Amino acid sequence: MNLVARALQKKTATGERQFPHILGVIYFSYRVPSREEGMPFWFAGDTDPKGDVQVQALQERLRCGWFSYMGEKLGLPVTTFVVKPTS
After folding, report:
1. What is the pLDDT of residues 22-42, one digit of tens each?
2. Cα gap 42→27, rounded to integer Å
3. In the chain, what are the domain boundaries?
């Protein structure tokens, strides 16, 4: 995710964001587990420090759908762990 963040922070020669139309990203994996928990992971982020409500709502709908799908495929309930970044 650090690599994605670095790419999205790039500026043009005039100082504007190089990718202004990318408002959010989602990084998730089923096959490669998270390092500490050893589970599939989902990480959503946005490029606006204030956050875009519509982008966040879309990310939340996608997250709920993905974990619902995973629960059906695995035949097990899927638990969501929310980890807040430390500052």
Report:
1. 999 998 887 777 777 777 778
2. 6
3. 2-74
